[in-house]
Amino acid sequence: MNLYQPQLMRIEEIVDETPDTRTFKLTFKDRNVAAGFGFRAGQFGEYSVFGEGECTFCIASAPTRKDYIECSFKAAGKVTAALRRMSVGDTIGFRGPYGNSFPVDQMKGHSVVFIAGGIGLAPVRCVIWNVLDLRKEFKDVTIVYGARSVKDLVYKRELEEWGARKDVRLVQTVDPGGQTPDWKGEVGYVAAVVEKVAPRSRDAFAVVCGPPIVIKLALPVLAKLGFTDDRIYTTLENRMKCGLGKCGRCNIGPVYVCKDGPVFTAAELKELPPEF
Amino acid sequence: MKTKCISRADLAALVADLAAAGTEVVAPVKSRDGRALDYRRIGRLEEAALGEVALPRRSLKELFLPASEVLLRYRLEKDDVAIEEVPATFPPLVILGAKPCDAAGVEVLDKVMGWDYRDEPWFARRAATTIVSLACPGVDGVCFCSAVGLSPDATKGADVLLVPAEGGFVAEAITPRGEALLASKRFAEGEMPVEAQAARAAAKEKVARNLPAQPTGFHDWLGERFDHAAFKDIAQRCHGCGACASVCPTCHCFDIVDEPEGLDRGARRRNWDSCATCKFTLHASGHNPRATQNERFRQRVMHKFSIYPRRFGEVLCSGCGRCVRACPAGMDLPEILGQLFRDAGGAR
Lengths: 276, 348
Description:
The structure holds two protein chains of two kinds. By secondary structure, chain A is of the alpha/beta class.
């Protein structure tokens, strides 16, 4: 079997997160493959629709939840449009897991601040559930999540669940103008809300993901709050094809996102040329 | 390693032996109009055009990384998909009369194909192939192999190096696989006076004049020069067509696409791609990390002369000059390198 051959997965469940974002729950069709599969928070895979092609997404479910994986995607191109046409019971291909991961073990015994914008919550959600499934091993858990508008917030059921937990501080926000009359969360950009919420940086790690602008604006705010660059983690998405360090597409200067990443510290980001 | 001799007649007999044994032979062959060379399958030595100054139009790359290669086939069934594996077994192949720069390019690519994940189709083809290089008899105005550590008679990537001699060739085995080929009865012990020594020395001098050797520490120096003036006005010339990548012995970027072969079946292929094209890095969101042609051309230079050397210890270029000859816009890599080499040399 060559490196590029995917495993077959069955779509078990489909959740519409927003009008254009959908989540698949997937299980391996081959029991032996399922039994041998494992991954770490932050890793990604190549998902494929046969006849259409492959697409790169992070694994959005937590490694602590065995027997299935989840991915969330927006219909943006040929493959994601084809994925959107699929139904429960259909078969897709999966190669992975690839890439490095968030240092969840290193974060144990510390507080964790999660900051996400839009569909950037997908990779962060993987770490959130990883941490919450081992809740006792961590100190404070803070989640700041924002989207353009209320209808663009993903994982609404889980946001409700996290909001109801006493051991999680969840702050939701939407961009100005994106609120509805009954919106109870914040109104404002994610970075500004982080500044207002001001999570303690002492003994804490920050995990940030979102569109480039969210990361760019959140980093100086975190620095102001006292987070050092080696305690701030993010995950980058660059266009990829192989995921194996061969196809020459995802590099940012000397760094291959598929092999050296997709998880980077803010310190590592600052060393990169401006090509992401 | 071992050196033997082979006459032209014996080389023709060797080609016939190989063909009879089911080994494919590829050599430079004149195109139908006689004006260009291509690496093509031959049945008899007379079909080959050995010892021409000109390079074949495309490099040896496609014999190991085809322009379009089937990775797997799929068949859609009711509620299921059946995947058909493509066997990675290839018949034995001898490449006769490879240009030394092309042979070197293949060996350079072993690094990226083998790090961490091993690309089986690549290495299965490598294992089935014996590369017999022929010392380059001369160079044109854009060859620059000596600038990247090679020479017109470099042995890198070759299993056997042939040097023209009176009545035939002196054959030097470079690898055990080359020694195995030299074990054929067609090769003779003894010596043959090597011909045109002076011409080969002249070729070496000429190629060195096209572009001097890269200064030491160039890869690290370049890695810190994303803002160098050499990359500023590229977009005014480069069309972003990717011709340079397709003729390049070392450009290996590829795409993976599905191509239906009917309603219920098809193939997943990897196809050559190029960092020069505008959609190469385009995100689904519309964001493009390399938004202009300046950045895209810079990536090509950086990948070859900084990123790859720093990661794998090899320059991702064998100085063949094909990118210059193929470019419709007159982009001149050795000229740009000359500018960078001068600045890097002057900086220390």
